[in-house]
Structure formats: C-alpha cells, structure tokens
Structures
1.
Amino acid sequence: MKEGWKRAELGSFCEIYQPKTISKKEMTPEGEYPVFGANGVIGRYSRYNHEEEEVLVTCRGATCGTVNISTPRAWITGNAMVVHPDSSQASKPFISLLLKGALDFTKVITGAAQPQITRQSLAPQLVPLPPLEEQKAIVDKLDRAFAGLETARANAEANLENAKELFQVALDDAIDQSSTPKRNLGELCILENGDRGKNYPGKKALTSSGIPFINAGHISGTQINWAKMDYIPEEHFNRLGRGKVKEGDILFCLRGSLGKFAAIDIKTKGAIASSLVIIRTTSEIDAKYLMFYLSSTICRREIEARRGGAAQPNLGATDLKKFMLPTPSVGQQETIANKLEIVRRTTDRLQEEYTRQLSDLDELKQSLLQKAFAGELT
Amino acid sequence: MYENTFNNIEKTLRAEEGVSNELDYVEQISWVLFLKYLSDYEGDRRDRSELEGKSYTPLLDAEYTWDTWASPKDASGAYDHNAALTGDDLIDFIGDRLFPYLGGFKKPDQDPQTIEYKVGEVFSELRNKFRSGYILRDVLEAVDGLSFNTQDARHELSELYETRIKRMGNAGRNGGEYYTPRPLIRAMIKVVNPKVGETVYDGAVGSAGFLCEAWDYMRQGEVSAKDFDFLQSKTFFGQEKKSLAYIIGIINMILHGVEAPNLIRSNTLNENVMDIQDKDRHDVILANPPFGGGERKEVQHNFPIPSSETAYLFLQHFIRKLKAGGRAAVVIKNTVLSNTDNASIALRKELLQSCNLHAILDCPQGTFQGAGVKTVVLFFDKGRPTKDIWYYELDPGRNLGKTNPLNDNDLAEFVSLQATKADTEKSWVVSVDDIDEETYDLSVMNPNAPEEAPLRAPEEIIDDMAARDEETKGILDDIRGML
C-alpha cells in the first residue's frame, strides 16, 4: 500500500444507515424540501431530515449500487442508503468517488428476485483510505478529468452523427443535380410484384429449408438477413406465378418500414412476399446508382408524398413507377456511383472510429478511477 | 349505484356460452334492459293516466309483461322464486313465445313514431343468444334492480352503457362501425351549434352518439318546459340499417333521457335522393357514415353520382337532406379529398358548388380504434357555394391508441381557432379560386408546416468535426498530463 494509505472497512470510518421511509402518499408536490429516493429526487415533502448533503447508495431494486449525492436540507428516504463519513477521516466527495471506483458491488448486492444492499453487506467492505490531503487531490484531479471526458464523449457522439450526415449530404449532392434530365422509375426498371394470388404462402406453408421466401422483415440496413430466412418447399415455389428473384435484383419494401431496400447479391433462387417489390434494372440504369438514389433525400420525399396515409403506410408498385429519377448517361451514373462508394467507405470508417472512441473513453474513465484508488494518480 | 350491478352481470355473462364477444354482450344486455325500461315506462304511463282520470290500455298482454315472466313478485312484493321461470323453460318461453309476440308488433303500416314500432323492429330482428336459463335468470334478477324512473338513475345507466359501447368500439373492426369517439363528436357539435327549435339528423345513427351528445348540448342552460318537450320528441331523427346498432342506439338515447327516440330502422341509401322534399329536410346533420361497403347497382341508382363507395352515397344524401341555411358536419375518409376517379371528382365539385364547405378537420392516425383509414371531418352549410375552406391539421402531440385516445383538450384549439379561421402552423385557408378545376383536389397540404432543418453543406459538417476532434485532443492531452 502506498505511504500513508491504509485499508479499512467502510463501516469503520463511515456511518451507514437507511433513513426512515415516507410513502408516496405523504409526499406533496408543493412541499418545500426535495425527497431523495432510490434514484435522485422522487418528490417533495414538508420536512427535511438531513441538514447537509449526503452520499447515497441505492439499496433496492434494479438500480442497486448507483451512487448519488443529495442536496442540503433534503428528506432522504429508505430506498437510499446513507454513507456518512467521519469528517476527520474522509470527505464526502471522496467517498462518492470511492464507492464508484473502489467497490465491487456485485459482492455487496444480495437477493436474486429483489436485489438489495444491507448495512451488513456494505459495512465490512475493505476500501483504500488515503490521508485527507491526498483525498482532496484525488477528488480535484478526477473531477477535472471526468468533466473533460464528458465533453469528449459528447464530441464523439456528435461526430458519429456528423459522419452519417456527411454521407447523406454528399449523396444528395451527387444525385440531385437540377440540370440532369429526370425519368420515371417505371421506364428505367422492371417492377415485379410477388404472386399474391391463391398460391400465396401463408404462415403454415413456411418451412425451415427449401427456397427462400423473403419478406420486409428480412431487410435491414440494405442487407438481407439470410440467417433468419423463411423458406418454402420447391414444389410450392414452382407453383408461384411471379415474384421470383434473380441475382442483381433490388428488393424494395412497400409496407411497414417503407423504403427499406436490399440487393440480391448472391446467386440464389427465391420469392418475395407481398410486402416487397422487385426492382430489376434495365440497360438504362446502373444498379449501384439506383441504390444510391433509393437512399437519397429526393427519393424519401417521393415516398412521403405518395404513401397512403393509413395506419399501415404503404406504397403500390404503380406509385413507385412514377418516381422521378435524375438520369444522366449510364457512364456518368457509374462514375457517380463509384465516387459515392468511396465516400461511403470513408464515412463508414469515420463512424467506426468514433464508435471505438466512445468505448475507449468509457474504458479510460474506469482506468482513471482504478489508478486513483491504487494511489497512482497522486 | 349501478356499477356493481353491471359488473356482476358481466361476470355472470362470462359463463354464458352463447355470448362470446363484446358485441354479443352489448346486444344481449340491451334487449333485457329494453324490456325492463318498457316495464318502468308502462308503469309511469299507467300512474299518469290514473292521476288524470283517463283510461289506460297497456302496451303488452299480461303474460308478457316483465312482472309476469321476468320478475314475478308475491303478495308481499318479494321475489317469487316459485312463479319464476328458469332453466330450459325460460329459454323456451323467450324463444318460442316472447320474441315472436314482441316481433309481431312490427306491422307494415306502423307509424315509426310509436313505441310499438320500436318494439316490433327490435324483436323481429334480434335473436336471443342466452342458452342457459339459469344464467339468464340471474341476469334478469340483476336488471330488475335497475330503475329507469329517475334522471339520476338514467344518467348513471347511460354512463355505464357508454363505457360498454366504447369497449365494443375498441374491440375490433366490427365494433368500431358503430362508435365515434365522443370528444370528436363534442367538437363537431360545438362548431355546428344546434339550437332548440332546430331538427338534428343522423342518417347512419349507429349507437346514436351524435344525437345523444347533441341532446346534452342543447339542454344546457335554461330550457323551458315547452322547449324541453320539443327537444324530447321533435328534434332528433336517425336511421340505422343494422339491427344490432339500432337497438344500441335506441337504448342509448333512452338512457340519456329521450323517452321515445325517433330512430327508424332502414337503409338510408334505399331512398332516391331526388325524391327528398323540403319537409324531409333538417337544420343540422351530424354523422359518421360507414366507409367501404359496396352498394348494389339498384342502390347506386338512387344517386346522381353512382359509386360503390358507401360513404360517397351518404355524402350525396346528406347534401340533399340539409335545409337551406342548414349546417352539417360529416366524418369521411381522407381519400374523398384526393381520389382522382370520376365519381370522386364529381362529388367534390358538387359539394363545392351546392354547399359552403367552410372547414375541413384533418384527423390523425389512431383517432378511430381498429380502423386503418385516415379520416377528415367536412363542415358545410347549405345555401351558398364555397368561397374559402379553412383547414386544420389535428396533432395531439402523441400517438393515439386504445389506452391513449383522443380527448376534449386535444380538440380545444381546433374549436376556438375555427371561429376566426386563423392562420397558424396547423391551420390555413384555401380559396376556391386556387382549386384545380380539372381535379378539384382538396387534399390536406399544410403550407405552414415548419420546414425540416436543411442538411448543412459538407464543408460545414467537416469543419464541425475537425473542431470537435481538436477539442477532444486537448482534453486527452490534459488528462495525460495528470498521470
């Protein structure tokens, strides 16, 4: 242990107790003083039972082990355990950080159905106890570090969104060129609905193997979830009149999450459910360019303008045919699509980096706490 | 006082095989309530006749009165178990004798204003669904405890009945056919503002929600005895095709205090609108006609604009049923404003030219439980062609659902703004001159909706990202310095 530090039982230098509970009925919204319960302020009351602020640990329920600090002159109720240090041995801000960083609450929480913390389980926990001077230094350093980490976290989250927005802006910019002639989707592609007639496979017709039967639920983030696929027997598939997919087809969602789409990028047989429509490109339009169009804001506006305003938003294939696409030459479409592909890869990488940064920041916070209580920070 | 009785009846009915859903429940409890009501009503008439020294002819033959078969009492006035029918005897009596007798009141030339007419209509169509005479016996005993004689009793019963109807309305597609959310009804009534002396008509009366709420509205404040009588007997008129809804409408109006409701059971669309004369017209029309349907060609021929869409035919009916200067508020699906088929265009043109369509209320998803379509309410007056239409987009600020339905507060802003036709984020005026003369498109398109924040230029976004990265770098350097 570091010079001047000792290990002590929490209960040896702190008073640990649960204050008297008041029921919900007794609390009044116009009460002068705040009531602190399991998770911060839960109401107001006409009296207070604690003059100063106190360090609280939630001792009941799913949020057991959360550390809070009350405000001066508050009523603290029984779902919060007060940990009140002897001021000659420890300060309250230090105790608050100590409880967050030097205590393994899994060892303290008891009860499977109703998690709870009791005085008996908390008091004997051994914790490091540095001298008061050093406690102050630790609190100062950690407060400053954590404030900075909060800002850093907010920045990372904002930049994660920024990266997504950047891609959308680049996409819209590339697709929505006002000088480009527009043509109907129906002229540029073949739209094919599934067979919705008497051969339509109901729930009972689905099997665990066979020919894939794809519905809107299998599509997310422009990918088809083959792992959770439904199937129909080959002979049923043969009975269907249309809606059979080919490699390269784009499946577009007409119902529910309107506008979702994904490409069939593997060689496979398959049929679509009534919630989807097949968009099959002709030689007039590049498939990658089309998919970028489907992600663009102008496509989204077309969808909004035509969706049936019913409980189940839906679009028909006839509506889809009327969508106006800016249609440069196929060569130009390919160029645009390739450029956007590069932009997308870059922004995807940016998103990955910021996501990693977020988890790094969390790790850093825990690591700092650990260092502090090992005596290595001060 | 009656809440327990109702709850007990429900508990009892749960064991009854023949009553399997909310619709059955409301239907079957309704005929029992109706017969008890009839018994109290008869009692009243008899007493009044005695007081006035007039002779009195009972409506029902002795063996079919409530006191004989449903709740016989002995000399001391207590319930006579021995005389009471139960079990299979009771079921047989109901099916073989009581219902046919009551149904027999329906005669071809019967004056629809009479109570006999209503009895005949109800019991010629309705079927008893009780299979256990013992369960029915329990229900009869419970209902016997209800009294229809005082206003308080009726008021409480009407509230209890309304909650059951609402449950039925929420139970699924069929139930919703007869139930319009009461807050919407109240808002429509406030705008249309029916006054004593006027007649109020609902050609698709269902559970009579509109007429009952209008009755409550028009009775507010000081109402003279003469006015009260006029309200009671000469004000409210309704028609309903389906027998289940018909009996619910009748009971509902009775419970609200209208003793002999002027509800006729017939298919409104069977009337040729060209035959409607001024004496058949009304001052105020409030309705939520059924959508979809699919009317036969013979029915369609009754209308200048034939269409298989039931709501379109109703709208034409209502336009012609309005007196000059009359006011109407009709709920209809929003596609009537935008559909481009010939019938829709013709209908809109007719509405705009023969009436003053002065307001359209756009209702949000979930206003009607169980119905998928989005609806609007059309407010129109008869007499002048349309000049300006005031649109209001209702946005309660939350998703509506069974546990979170529309309430009066949600509509308060609409009612107050409607008076001034104010221009706000949710309301705007469209002049008839600006309407496309080929399509007469009236779709709800809010020009005042706040524009969604446009995406920033790429350079801006990148600058923002770089700045944040700089800041984060500074923070991390600072922390490193601490270590």
Note: The longest helix of chain B spans residues 22-52.
2.
Amino acid sequence: MMNAAIKLSELLDMVMDVLNDQFYGEEYYIIAETSDIKNYPERSYCFVTLVEKEGSKILAKADAVIWSKSYHIISDFEFTSGVKFERNILLLLKVTVDYSPVFGLKLQINGIDASFTLGNIELQRRQILNDLVSKYPSLVKEIEGGLVTINKRLVRPVIFKRIAVISAPGSDGLLDFRHELEHNPREYRYVIKEYLCQIQGNNAEEYILQQMRIVKSVKPAYDALVVVRGGGSQLDFGPFDTLDLGVEIAGFPIPVITGIGHERNVSIADMVAHLSLKTPTKAANFLLEHNRKAEEDIEQLASFVLLRSRQRFVNEDVRIGMMEERISTSVRKYFNSHLNKLDRMQLTVHLLNPGNILARGFAMVKKADRILNDSSTIKPGDTLEIVMSDAIIGTTVNQKSTKE
Amino acid sequence: MKTNLTYQKALDELNKIVAEIDSETIPLDQLSEKIQRAGELLEFCRHKLRETEEAFEKGLKKIEE
C-alpha cells in the first residue's frame, strides 16, 4: 500500500483528466430543481444547489454556479417568465460540467430556459383550474374561455364604504392602498379594517384562508375584501395559485378584489375573484371611481328633480293665468250674447209696437169699435173707422172685392 | 273661504264656473256672485303656488348648506 501512495492532488488530477476528456466544453440541457440558492448580486455570481426529487426522496444532487459572464441569465429568466429565481423551482438549464481538485464537481450554468418553467407553471395552474371547474361546478364555471364564479357575479353595492384588507404586516402594497384611499381628492371616507398575515412562504395559504374566514363572519358584512401585496409587480404567486384559496375566493359572499400585482401573469386567485387589478393602487382607484360614479348619478338625479320641480311651478303659474283668461273671455262672451239678445228683443218690441207699425203706413180697420182681422163682416154701406198713425177716419164702404 | 280648500279643488271649481258661464246656464243675477267667487279662487291658487314655491326653495337652501 505504501508504495502506491500518491498525493491527493495527483489523484484528483487524474479524476480531472478523465472528466475533462468526457465533459470538457460539452453543453448539456438538464432538468433540475433548485433547492438552495446563494446569490451575490454585488459580485455577479450565484451558487445554486440542484436536486432531482421523487416525492421527498432525493435522487440526485449537484452544486452549480452561475459566473459573472452568465450572471445576466438570472434577470433575463425572471423578466421573461415572470417567475422569481429562487428555491423549489423546476428549471431547464444549459450546463457544462466542471471539475477542479479544489472545488470538486460543479455544474456551470450558462442558460436558463424561461419558457420551460413558464410552461410548467402554466401547466400546474391549468390543472388547478380544471380541478376547480370539475370539482366545484356550483362555484366555478368555464364559459367561452373565461371563468364565471359566484364571486364575480355578486352585485356591487351602491357605494363601497367598509373595506376589509388582507395583506402582510408592513407591506408596501398595504401602505399604498391605504394612502390612496385616505387621501383621495373627493374626501370620501372609507372604513378600512386590516387582516394581517403572512402572504408568502409555506403556510401562507392557510393563513390567508384563516383571515378570509374571519372576514366572512363579521357582521354587518363588509362591502368588499381587498387582497394586496408588494409595492409593485411581484414575480410569483405562491399561495394565490392554490386550489383551496381559489375555492374560497370563488364562492366568497363579498366581492373580492385582488391587487397582488404581477409582471405579466394572472394567478388563480385573480381569475376567480370578482375583480383583479394589477396593483394595490389600482385597486384603491377602482373603489374611488365606483363611488365617484355613484355620486355623479345621485347629483344628476337631484338636478333632474330640481329642474322638474321648478318647471312644475312655472307650469302651474301659466295654468292659473290661462284660467283667468278663460274666465274673462267667457264673461265677455256671456255679456255679448245677452246684450245681443236684448238688442234683438228691443228691435222686435220696436217693430211690433203698433204705433211703429201704423207709422210705416199700415192702418187698423174698426167696425163698431172692434178691430177687424178680416173682411168677413164688411158689407158695402157699412160704416168703418180707419185708424191711422195720426187720425181716425170715419168712412162708408163702397165696394168690396176679396182676394183669391 | 272654506278651510279645507285645496289647490286642486279650487282649480276644479274654477273649471266648473267657466263651464257654467260658457254654457250660459247661469242666470244674470248670479253672474256677479260667480265672478266674485272665481276671483277668490284665483287669488287662493296664486297664493298657494307662491307659498309652495317659497317652501321648496327654502328647503333646497337648507340641503345645500
């Protein structure tokens, strides 16, 4: 044994030679999961532990490194996939195998395939969606490529006043949201109740569900439940892409508004909630805008009522005026009509006045003091009196000829 | 003037008077009485209208404060 002893470095050099023969410069595409990451952004390098797991059993493990010349692939990946580069993500990596006697075997990562990860996440999300639709048909339906849920179909209150907010303690998103609502230009006052819990990490889903159940039980009921996080776009969804949370939101009795912000994707929570907005600020603006429109509608109604009422007064005034006119016209007509009657009567009386008749040349004929209407009692030789307008003539009849 | 006279009742009565005058069913002797009554009713209506309008505008000012 002692003769064959060599230095460690010599042995490892041999190992290195063998490995280099096989692997030097060869690029491989591997699928592996990140299990630990030590990132040094100031130095532009990152150490990653990669594993392959079956359930909880680790089948393979390797140390990997991203050197400065490839460091940009991390931000490229995050940008393209919208996923944060962190542990427990399945990745498709372009690697080369490096071995050095000092540092051992390391995989050098030169590329990360964003679309693989994205596709994977999309796949998982799709599966959860399918679960939702098939297992909870009373809560979620897929119609024409879109989702319809109980929560989406809730009728919005006339105004939003009492708001429950679920967020992480100290979250920038929560601060932004509150600020927007508490300093709004129209001075609307909102009652905001915070329900704080961890919204990322392993048990976040359960914490959020817990808070939601509390919110649900509060009476009188809130006008809306708003879920916010971050101060801007986030890179992955964590608990918001889970089945149980999706179920709870889909069937929640109060409109759920999400402002959990994401670079480019939409989580399950966003898809089943009443309304999903990109950022907490936008969520606040929605609430403001809704109330503003309600105020506008009320003011319009008030204006209308005012206008109509004033119009009514004018109309009634006119009506009274017209009534007055009618009376005056009618009275005049009455008088005219009666005056006419009187005039006619006067004329008739005038005409029928015997004196006037005589004056027109007619004469009355009397015999023995009786006025005669006809000549039946007149014989020649009779004495008659002819009464004229100015005299009475005594006369004797000479002859009589009757009209045919 | 009857105490339970309303704007609407006054208008109705005025309409009736006008109809009577128009149809000349009123004897002349009662005409001046009717005309006087009409005058009272018109006065009443005008007054009621003005009163209501004032109350309305006053109520409005209160709301706007």
Note: The interface with chain A takes residues 11, 14-15, 17-18, 21-22, 24, 26, 28, 31, 35, 38, 42, 45-46, 49, 52-53, 56, 60 of chain B (CB under 8 Å).
3.
Amino acid sequence: MSNPVDKKQDIPFMRTRGYFVFLSVLYILVALYFMAVKGFNFGVDFKGGIKLVYEFSEPTSDGSLREKLESLHLGEIQVVRFGSASANSFLIKVKHQEGRELASEITLQLTSSFGADRVKLLSEESVGPKVGAELRTRGLWAMVITWFLILIYIGFRFDFLFAPGAVVALIHDVIVPLGFFSFFHKEINLPILAAFLTIIGYSINDTIVIYDRIRENLKKLPSSMPLPDIIDRSLTETLSRTIVTSLTVFFAMGILFYLGGAVLHDFAFCMLMGVVSGTYSTIFMASPVYLLLHRLFPGTGMSRGGKRS
Amino acid sequence: MPESLKWKIIGTLLLILVSVYLLGPTLWNMVGVDEKAIQESRFSAVRKFLPQKGINLGLDLRGGMYLEMDVDLDEALKNRVDILSLEIERLAPEADYPGIKLARQNKTHHLEVHVPVNKKSEFQKIIQTNFGDVFQWINSVQNPSLPNVEDAANQSKQALAFLEYKLTGAYEKYLRDMTLKQAEEAVRNRIDRYGVAEASIQRQGADRIIIELPGVKDPDRVINVIRKTGLLEFRLVDEEFEQSKLTELIAEAKKQGGAPDGYSKEEVLQLNTFLAEKIPNDAEVMFEVERDPMTREIVNGIPFLVKKRADVSGDMLRNAQVGIENNEPHVRLSFNKIGTKNFGEVTKDHVGKQLAIVLDGMITTAPVIQSAILNGEAQITLGYGNYDSLLREAEDLALMLREGALPATLTIATKTVIGPSLGEDSIRQGITSLLISAVVIVLFMIGYYKLGGILASFALILNVLFLFAILALFQASLSLPGIAGIVLTMGMAVDANIIIFERMKDERRLGKTARAIIESGYDNAMSAIVDANITTLISGIVLYQFGTGPIKGFATTLCIGILTTLFTAIVVTRMVYDVFIYKRKITKVII
C-alpha cells in the first residue's frame, strides 16, 4: 500500500455489491415468508409448558417412552434424546394443562413402568403461559431497544449516514438465523434469544471496525477518490483482521458446539451462524447502505480529505 | 523508564495478586479440598485471612430450584375490604342505622352499602372522618344488588339509599406494596424455618417474587410449604339451610347455570357467584373435603353454608404443634388472649351449633360445639392415611400456622428444577470447552503473530483471571450460559489484540522505528476498539436488564468480560511493549 491512490491491490467489493445485496434481500424475503407461514417453534420458555429431562439406567427409545406415556393423555408431547447416545437421557416436553401436576404425573408413570431406581429426574422446567407470552414481548423489546441505542451511538460517534447501515446489518444478522430456525422448526427458547442479542453485539463489533477504517480513510485519502473505492480500500486493508477474528470466534463457538454439552448446543449453533452472518453483513449490507445513503443525501456526513464537518 | 510506566507495572502486579487472593476459595474447591478439613488444620489462621466464599455458582451449575411466583394482590385487596367492613359495622350498628347492610361485591373490591335514606349523610360523614383516605365514594344510584329490607324498629318500611365505595388510589397502591412485602417476608420466614441454606428471595416488578433454592432435596415439599396460604379460620355454620336443600341448590346451579364442578378456590368462588341470589348475604358455600388415604387427592366434598365472617382466625394463634394421638399425627393449636376470648365467646353463645374449621378455604371438619371452650386450645385432624406422610403434613401445617398465613395467594409462574448431577455435568463440559478454546486460541495467536502472539496469550490469561476474580468479588452468579459468555469474551478479546497487531504491521510496512510502530499502532487502533466494545457493551447491558436467571449470568460475564478485555488488551500489552522498548531497547517488532 505504498501509493495511496493505487487501486489495483484493492478487492472490488463494492462493484459486486449489487449481486450480493440481491442475494441477501432474496434470502431475507424467503426467511420472512417462512417465519410468517411456518411460524416459530417456541419452546417452553415462550409458550408455557413443561420440560423434563430423565436419565434411564438402561437404554431405551423415544418410541417406547411415548408408548408408556400414552395412558396419561397428555396430548401433544415431544420426546427427544438429550445429550450423547450413551447418556440414555431423554427430554420430554408437554404443553401446559390447567389443574394438572404434569411433572409428578409423568414421573410417577415412568417410575412405575421402569422401576423407581431405574429412572432419575435430572431437571424440570415449567413455565406458566402468562410468563411465556410476557417473555416474548420483552425479548422483542430487548432487541428493538438494542438496535435503537446502537443507532444513536453510531450516529454520534460517526455520522447519521453510517448509522442506518449498521442497523440494517444487525437486522439482517438476526433474520438469517431466525429464518433458519423457522424453516427447520428448531426450538427457540431463552438461551437462543440471548444468542441473538449476542450476535447483535458481535456483529456491531465487526461493523464498527470497518466503519472506523472508512472514517479514517475519508480523512486521509484525497477527495477526488470516489466513495466506493474508499470503501473497497478500507475493506481490503482490514481484511486480514476480519478473517483472523472471525475464524477465532468461529473456532471458539465451534468448540462450544461440540463439547459444550446438550444444554449449550443450540446456543452455540446459533452463534456460529451469527458469526458468519455478522462478517458478511458488514461487507455486503452495511457498506452498500452507507453508499446508497451517501448518494441520496450528498453533502451531508463527514467531509473528506481533512477537516471533519 | 518513565514514572508512569513503573506505576503501571506495579498496579498490574497488584491486580494479579488481588485476583489470586479473591479466587483462593474457588481454586481449592475445584481441587476438592474440604472446607472443614482446612478449618481444623494448621492452615486455619491463613484461611480466616482469605475471603469467605469462592465463585457463586448459579442454579444450573449447582442444582436446585428456581421459582417465580405471582402474588394475587387483587385478592388481598378484597380481604382487606372485608376486614374494614367489619370495622364500619361496629361504627354504624344496626341499632342506630336500621336496615343497614354492607357487602363487598363478588368480583371487585368495591363495597356496597344500604343505609336508610334519612341516615345517609350521617353515614357518609362517618366514612369521611374515619376512612377518608381509605374509601372514596363512587355513586349512589338506585341500582342495588342488596334487596330492600324492612325496618323492624320503626315499624315502617324505610326506603334505603345505596352507596358504593371503592378504595382510594393511594391506599390501593399502599396496600399492594405492603402485601407484596409481607408475602416476601412470609415466604422468607417459612424457607428459613424449613432450612434451605443460601436461599435467595427477591421481589420483581409489582407482583412477583423470585425464589432461588440451591441444592434443595425435596422441591415439591418446599413448594407446598411456600405456597400453602395457611389461612386458618373458625366459622359458624349457617343452619338456616338444611344440608339436603343446599345440595339441591348446588346441583341445580351446576346443571342450569353451568356452575363448575370441583373444589378449587376459583371454582368455589364461581359457584358462590351463581348462588348469590339464593343464599343469605353474609354466608357462602364451602366444602368439607374427603381425601383418598393413599394419594391424599380430593375425592369428595360435602357442602356447608358458613358465615363469611371468621370469629377466630390463625393470626390469633400463640402456638401450633404436632401431636400424636392413637398413632395419628394431628396439629394442636393454642390461642393467644384475644383468640382465647373470641373462641370462648363463640363456643359459649352457640352451643349445639356447628363450628367449621376452615383451612385455606376448605373445611377440614365441622364439629358440633358441645360446650364453651375457655382454655383456648383446639385440634386439627388430618384424616386417614400413611403415617409418615401424615406426619410430614402435620409438621408442614404446624410450621405454616406458626409463621402466619400468607397475605395473598401465590401461584407458580415459572419453575425450574435442576438435579445436581446435571449441574456437575454442565460444569465439567463448560470448563472443558473453556480450556480447549483457550488453548486453540493461544496456539493460533502464537503461530500467526509469533512473539506478539505470546504477549496476546498472556493478556488473554490475565483477562480470564480478572474476570473470574471480579465475579468472585461481587458474588455474581456464574451460570452455564455465563461460561459460554467467557468463551465468547476470549474470542472478542483476541480481536482487540488482532486490530492492534494488524495496525502495527501496516506501520512497519511504512518503515517506522519500533517505538513509532508501537505508538501509532496503539493510537490508531484505539478508536476502533473502544467504539466496538462499547456497542457490544450496550447489547450486554440490555440483555442484563431483560434477562433472568442464567441469561442474566451470561450478560454479567459478557459485560465484565468487555471491561477486563479493554484493560488487558490495551493497558497491559502496551505496558509490556513499553518495558521492552525502554529496558531491552528493541528495534524490531516481531508480529
């Protein structure tokens, strides 16, 4: 990078942006469609209900457990393996039912079917329906407030042309995994919501590093240099950092995914998607939006090559 | 070496020492050394010098129960109005106010009063003087639910005016706050008595109580002790109606009006609403329940018409103890002075009538009063069943009666029980992930950034050390998501170093001196690092506000992690570089 105006070493991100933005918008539309049509698989935390984890001393199958629980007429129940295959633990989920002590009923049924010392209740989680709905609202508010606060912070530290781009990238980073979860009907519970808020935190981290470089280059490079080229320069200059950091966090989350145990499994998975999306959105969402706003509102925002407005 | 650098080094070394000090208990807890053994060994003096507790493990790592309970404050308001109406009756007796009738509306806490027209303003003045800041008058439209009554004293039919009162806003708020506080106190007392170590009870919002019970052995029993209102009342049976007639009325209400089956509180309330016209105003229907001896489930209920007013109640108890007679556990009650007096009066005035013993809205027995009971002692029998479970029931009941009734009903909004083995597994998996992530990151950093990588790794280790130390210092709860937060923090902490190193690489390419490389590297990277971490901090803080339980633990470690990252990545690594510049006078920056 000896010659500041030498464009040849810069990767032409912005030139290809149309293609990627189109892909992203397409994905988002598809995701939104599925979210509207298929809805979400809200877990016990958000819908109310009971989640029980039992450990059995002998191998058994979810089919046989379901059979044993049929006589209780529990309605819609889910039985899945919990943890590794050798652990013989199963997760049972039942919707909330008025006036019944579901946890004790199920435990009683299983201990009488298998023998009291062959079944162990590892954990029990029960959430009333009112709390579930409350949590959903609060969760949504938490995300919206975070977006808003970040919008304001960036507006002040950079300028208000940068801010919307960052928030668009954040919304993108939440919709990407959400769409995935909706399509594959994966369960959304409290830790997943925490993962979303964390993804927002991580993604903005990434976006700001790029913005910071753009801000610096705007001042440093001559005003004759067109904005897309400045952005390309900034992205290329920070590319090594972006790759190294993304890989590091990706590996850290990957280890959590494999070794963190059943409880953190989905959380880590969500984070993995978030890390990838976060890096992508900074380049192909935040920057193009900034470019667009700059075209729509020329003359506002930071001044170039010297003093800051 | 400049002064400021010396201070930085000393400061950092001190912080490291303090951190190790704070983490002492945690370290030997992890290694498995027993607390007691240390206390008794020759290290006991040293032990006293170190902090009391190690890191506070959250429920999902320790095992235990987490409860969120809703407090029924509306019901508390209604109860209060009931008590106040008794006082009003005393101030405005039938003698002076012929035909006066007070009743609380069934669905709300509003009070309806029928008072002879000529006494209306007098009555209103009584309320104004004595209950001015409690009750406010709403209206006096001629649309009462109380029927017209003949005025016996005046030998003429007096027209009755109808007044409706409700609680003032200020008083209602005061009552709600106080009830919530009392409920919290009562729950705390019961849990203390029951004996759960390190229980945590807190209020949340306007009507919720959060309870954490680590390591609790019998969660359902504890819930019972917490939840059971423990409201004991002695009420006279209204003998105006015969049993058979009552049963008939109820059956009719169920068939025609769709009144509910079942004996729960809500269902009985609904039943009474249906029967409101047909039964006298100062009485209500309650059931004497029969329980299956094996499961203790309710199998049958005999209806009684009992007066709404309780002449003797649980708050007049001096003591409640478990007694065993004929191999049957029961609870023996001893009343205080007021209780003994009331009890004596009621039994003296109503010999031959039935007195219902009501526990939490259900009649346990309704014996006939044989003679006046003047010694203030009574018994509650529990029916038939297994000796051990009856004994437990008697013990829990006695505990509740001793501690006092809950001021309102508690319902469980959320309940999470984590068995201890799951907790141990979680710790193991969490720590393993943490260690392996750390190793992978360190190897990568050293491989890619060489000497700089070693420095970054050193900063990372300090980072995690400080993080844990702060957690221990504030006894903040570490949950499984919290450990995930630490893993995430490690990844993002490294990012700060990466930004700095990449920057230094750029500067080196420009051919600057070692010192200039380091200075401009750090200076230029600062804005990016600060902005990036503050925005992550924003999302962490929002998450902290929003989350409960384990999620809060995650937000806590995330936020603390950001702060420690800023310190170690910027201050500490810079400090080491500065030392190299001044002491070793390096000329090359190896990254």
Note: Chain B touches chain A through 68 residues (CB under 8 Å).
